[in-house]
Design brief:
By secondary structure, the protein is of the alpha+beta class. Helix content is 31%, strand content 18%. The mean pLDDT is 96.
Length: 68
């Protein structure tokens, strides 16, 4: 499955979350490191959901840039 990752740049770091998997987050000093940590966070989050017998949500989020 492919999930939409929202990245936000702070003053000194990046953070990320998934709209389709609430509670699945990561943060690091660089964009690349944040995405790498997010991959691991997604795997752990999904594994925990499976262990708890919770159904895995299908990705439904999407994103677009809108020029104004």
């Amino acid at each position: 499955m492919t999930y939409l990752v929202i990245l936000e740049q702070g003053e000194n770091s990046f953070s990320a979350y998934l709209p389709d998997l609430p509670g699945c987050v990561a943060a690091a000093d660089t964009r690349e490191e944040t995405l790498q940590l997010m991959r691991g966070a997604i795997r752990m989050h999904l594994e925990g959901m499976r262990e708890d017998g919770v159904s895995i949500p299908k990705p439904t989020s999407s994103a677009e840039y809108v020029a104004v």
